[in-house]
Every structure is written in structure tokens, then in C-alpha cells.
């Protein structure tokens, strides 16, 4: 059915409203970051300035929270991606009868509210460290990493599992038949195949940790992350320095996405060239093979 003029107009109107709703706040913050008034203001533009970016980088609390968020994000990636990889491999290896129960257990932290995860992390590790004499583990950074990794690892598992389900098991069997050990098969066959999923899971884990607030606000204890600092600033009244921070984060995200897309396309092109070269070599070898004589 070909849409009529009314349907096309309504679709165009819906598209415009959708993108205004999606990008409107970013435009407002982007304009206010370069405007001179003390309060975030889009119109009228009293003048253009970069002072709010200087004020952002001169804010010690903001920079301390940013460094803490980056450090926690890296630690969460180092924990969540291996756990997600192990969970995905187990999912494909266990019996189908218990696969649904296993999936329910490992995905349940995603369905748990972040506040519950944060509070339960603090309560559990306070009692555990008190009974075992390991009080050094009762630290804001440690608790935040453990609390975030408990549900971010499930995200990583789902990403890796989607890639792993397309893996051809005959490659493993052929390598084992040729004398390779299981660690060699894992390192030289499975990991290269999962490399795109591992990279995507690492990026998702870092971003999920960086922007997390519900779990972090309880587990961080007396320390500060960027999200907790921003929450406190917003309660006291927003300034264009926060808009400047949003501009910086969006710019870094866009640049990172473009760089990743360029890398991915180059990697895909290189893989396609290798595959073409292999096919051409195979065809040349078959063409040079003499036909067996009949009779």
C-alpha cells in the first residue's frame, strides 16, 4: 500500500518531533555553554565565551569526580567483560533443560533496581569484611566496582552471547582433530571470532559505569564520582559549566564513535581482501591441478 499525502505529512511531522525531543536538550546545553550569562541561557545570546570551559577544568571537585569515574569505569570493564565472556560460554555449553534457569539467574541483576543493588552491596560487604578482618575491602571504589559489575557483566554476556551463537563449532572440532589443545583453540580460534563483541561489550560496560548513579550514590560511601558531584551541583543550582561538561562528553563520544566506525570498516575491508585472496589462491590451485586420466 502506497502511503497517501496525509500519511507522508504525519510521518514527517513525527520524525521532526522525535528528533527535536531527542536532540533538543543537547542543543540547549550546547548553546548555553558558549553564552555569557551566569545561568544556562539559550536566548538572548549576550555574547560568546569559552570561560565556562575554563571554569569547568578549574573545578577541583568536578575533575576529581571525573578521574574517579574514569578509574571505576576501567576497573568495571576489566571485571565485567571476562565474567560476561565466561557466562556466555557456559550458556552455550550447558544442557538445554537448565539453560532457561541459568539465563534467568545471570540476567536477574539487570532487572533489579540500582538502589537495591547499591544498598545490598554496602550491607553485604560491611558484614563480610567485619567478620573476615578484611576491612580494607570496605572502600567506596571497591564497593562501587563490585556493585556495578554485578549487573553490567550481564550486559556484556548478552552482547557476547549474540556473537557466540553464530560461531561454527566445526572450526573447534577441526583444530582439536589436528592436535590443538583447548587453550590453543580458545586463544587462536574463539577469541579472534569474538573480538568485535568483546570490544562492543567493553565500550558498553565503560559507558554504563560512567553514567551510573543509582548504584553509585550508595556504594561510593564518602568518595565522589562525576555523577554524584553533578547531582549535588544541580540541587544547588545549575551553571553553564555543567553545559560545558556536556559539550565535552558529547564531542568525545562522537569522535570515539567515528574513530571506531573507521576502524571497523578498515578491519572489515581487510578481512574481505584476505578472504578474496584465499579464494583466488584456491581457484588457482584447482586450475593448476591436472585432470586424472580416464581408463
TrEMBL record:
Plastid in keyword set: no
ABC transmembrane type-1 domain segment(s): 66-260
Major localization listed first in the record, in broad terms: membrane
Annotated CDD domains: TM_PBP2 (cd06261)
This protein's name: Spermidine/putrescine transport system permease protein
Annotated source species: Ancylobacter polymorphus
UniProt family annotation: Belongs to the binding-protein-dependent transport system permease family. CysTW subfamily.
Coiled-coil residues: none
Membrane topology: Multi-pass membrane protein
Subcellular location as annotated: Cell membrane
Source domain of life: Bacteria
Keyword terms, alphabetized: Cell membrane, Membrane, Transmembrane, Transmembrane helix, Transport
Amino acid at each position: 500500500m502506497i502511503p497517501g499525502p496525509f500519511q507522508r505529512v504525519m510521518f514527517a511531522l513525527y520524525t521532526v518531533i522525535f528528533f527535536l525531543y531527542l536532540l533538543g536538550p543537547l542543543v540547549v546545553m550546547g548553546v548555553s555553554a558558549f553564552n555569557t550569562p551566569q545561568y544556562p541561557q539559550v536566548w538572548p545570546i549576550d555574547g560568546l565565551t569559552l570561560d565556562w570551559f575554563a571554569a569547568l577544568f578549574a573545578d577541583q571537585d568536578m575533575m576529581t569526580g571525573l578521574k574517579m569515574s574514569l578509574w571505576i569505569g576501567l576497573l568495571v570493564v576489566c571485571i565485567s567483560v571476562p565474567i560476561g565472556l565466561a557466562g556466555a560460554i557456559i550458556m552455550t555449553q550447558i544442557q538445554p533443560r537448565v539453560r532457561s534457569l541459568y539465563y534467568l539467574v545471570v540476567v536477574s541483576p539487570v532487572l533489579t533496581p540500582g538502589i537495591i543493588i547499591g544498598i545490598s552491596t554496602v550491607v553485604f560487604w560491611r558484614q563480610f569484611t567485619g567478620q573476615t578482618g578484611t576491612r580494607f575491602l570496605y572502600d567506596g571504589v571497591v564497593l562501587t566496582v563490585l556493585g556495578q559489575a554485578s549487573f553490567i557483566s550481564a550486559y556484556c554476556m548478552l552482547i557476547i552471547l549474540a556473537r557466540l551463537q553464530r560461531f561454527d563449532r566445526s572450526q573447534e572440532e577441526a583444530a582439536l582433530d589436528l592436535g590443538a589443545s583447548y587453550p590453543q583453540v580458545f586463544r587462536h580460534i574463539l577469541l579472534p571470532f569474538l573480538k568485535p563483541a568483546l570490544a562492543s561489550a567493553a565500550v558498553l560496560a565503560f559507558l554504563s559505569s560512567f553514567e551510573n548513579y543509582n548504584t553509585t550514590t550508595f556504594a561510593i560511601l564518602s568518595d565522589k564520582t562525576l555523577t554524584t558531584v553533578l547531582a549535588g551541583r544541580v540541587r544547588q543550582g545549575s551553571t553553564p559549566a555543567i553545559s560545558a561538561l556536556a559539550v565535552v562528553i558529547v564531542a568525545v563520544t562522537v569522535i570515539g564513535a567515528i574513530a571506531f566506525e573507521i576502524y571497523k570498516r578498515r578491519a572489515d575491508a581487510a578481512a574481505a581482501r584476505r578472504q578474496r585472496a584465499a579464494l583466488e589462491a584456491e581457484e588457482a590451485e584447482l586450475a593448476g591441478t591436472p585432470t586424472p586420466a580416464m581408463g
